[in-house]
Design a protein that fits this description.
With 248 residues, this protein is α/β, with parallel strands linked by helices. 43% of the residues lie in helices and 15% in strands. It binds 2-phosphoglycolic acid.
């Protein structure tokens, strides 16, 4: 049985004060959740989030990590820094990082290794743009994103990775992929994983869907065979929406 995970990607939202208010409201509302609940606040809110979540069922995630241990990398955050906040998950290779901050598959591969070495679960994002989809390149894009990111990752380690299929055209647009479409593409991702590793790995790896997930889309999405959970952006910073999604 694969784990169900609902993870909230807050992106660049919420000061520490806002984080405190939000989490104090959210924690009691999802205390009986049947799935793993994760929130990924901005770095500046990790301390306050860590304090509030300590005695809760909500796991803490970070939105990024640098692959080097330390050094002259202005503006970056290391694994050790994240460890002090009891971070469990790290989002790696989000399409906004790929497109606005020029993150390459090679960077993402290194970040995955850094996560695994430090016992963080990487939430590794893949997804095609609308142009790529319309040009019939979706499968080759996804395949190369996965192959490059998993380069050198052992069979034992790859099982610890959570994949998030996030079609770029569905992120923040209100245009969610249909559940069938998402299910089929995630099925394809499982085939790619099977070709690199084996059937056991592809059947056990947790794969989330992300892209305009809302309270009114989640139930059907979660009923799909291949979809194990969701990476939620916009709806994760509204308490009532995130609560409904967690209780799909
Ligand atoms: P969205 O974002 O739910 O606002 O579309 C999802 C994501 O970027 O992870």
């Amino acid at each position: 049985m694969r784990k169900n995970i609902i993870a909230g990607n807050w992106k660049m939202h919420f000061s520490s004060e806002e984080t405190k208010k939000f989490l104090n409201e959210l924690v009691p509302k999802v205390s009986d959740a049947k799935c793993e609940v994760v929130v990924c606040p901005p770095f500046t809110s990790l301390q306050v989030a860590s304090d509030i979540l300590k005695n809760s069922n909500i796991k803490l995630g970070a939105q990024n990590i640098h692959f080097e241990e330390k050094g002259a990398f202005t503006g970056e955050i290391s694994a050790d820094m994240l460890k002090s906040f009891n971070v469990s998950y790290v989002i790696v290779g989000h399409s906004e990082r790929r497109s606005y901050f020029n993150e390459t598959d090679e960077d993402i591969n290194k970040k995955i290794f850094t996560c695994l070495k430090n016992d963080f679960v990487p939430i590794f994002c893949v997804g095609e743009t609308l142009e790529e989809r319309e040009a019939g390149k979706m499968k080759s894009v996804l395949e190369s994103q996965i192959k490059n990111a998993f380069l050198g990752v052992s069979k034992e380690d790859v099982k610890k990775i959570v994949v998030a299929y996030e079609p770029v055209w569905a992120i923040g647009t209100g245009k969610t992929a249909t559940s069938e479409d998402a299910n089929n593409v995630i099925g394809f991702i499982r085939n790619v994983v099977e070709n690199i590793y084996d059937k056991e790995v592809s059947e056990n790896i947790v794969i989330l869907y992300g892209g305009s997930v809302k309270p009114n889309t989640i139930k059907e999405q979660m009923s799909m065979e291949n979809i194990d959970g969701a990476l939620v952006g916009g709806a994760s910073i509204v308490v009532s929406d995130f609560e409904s999604i967690v209780k799909f």
